[in-house]
Amino acid sequence: MTAINALVRRDRVHVMTDGAVFLPEGQVIGSMQKVYILAQADAVLAIRGPTYIGPTLYGALNGASLTGFDDLLSKLIPAVRHSLDSLELLDPDAVAAVSARLDLRRADVVLAGWSQERGRGEIHKLDTSAAEWQVEPPGDGFIMPGDNPALMERLQAHNWDLSDERQDERRLLQLVHHQAAVDDLLPNGARFPTAGAFAQHTIITAQGIYTRIVERWPTAY
User: Fold this and answer.
1) What domain of life is recorded for the organism (predicted)?
2) What is the domain partition of the chain in residue ranges?
3) pLDDT band at 221 (very low <50, low <70, confident <90, very high)
4) How many angstroms separate the CA atoms of 110 and 12, rounded?
5) Nearest-CA neighbor of 43 among 12, 64, 67, 69?
6) Residue among 49, 117, 63, 52 nearest 85 (CA)
7) What is the pTM of this model?
8) If we measure between CA atoms, which residue out of 111, 102, 61, 51 comes closest to residue 81?
């Protein structure tokens, strides 16, 4: 429940996300951005997980006196731990009720940015469900969720690819449409919608960060 798709090109990084807020049972109850700009670090933060984590983690990182992208990478794990520990400040009965339906400490955290030191765009991921936390080394891109055979079969059937850089925005938007058409497979075996509300396209370059909503959908997409 949440689509985050990232792609690194020679001169930019693309991040395409949806904007739906889901109940643990899968119903769309609202909308919110899932990308948070950290301009002082030439980066954006994207979250796939419980709704509270995004704003909480963004606040922690935005107030961390970041000096650049590498500084952000070094401060990510402590900031995530601090954000998850904020659950202890909430009503324990309410936390227990939600925890019975959703793992409030499981999230995928994505950093996409431009490293001025290395002169390139990068994307990094952190999976809080891993036994040992580590920020994964940069790659050329990813589809999230991507470990879904039905989605992979659908993409292959529609000859979806990213071979033409001039079509990146259109193809990434198509990807979110495909993700919305097949249910996400959660670790507990449940099936829920992946995307909804809107598609937001964010571009990071050496010169700056640009983001906009490229398509809006009915609540029940």
Assistant:
1) Bacteria
2) 4-213
3) very low
4) 16
5) 69
6) 52
7) 0.90
8) 61
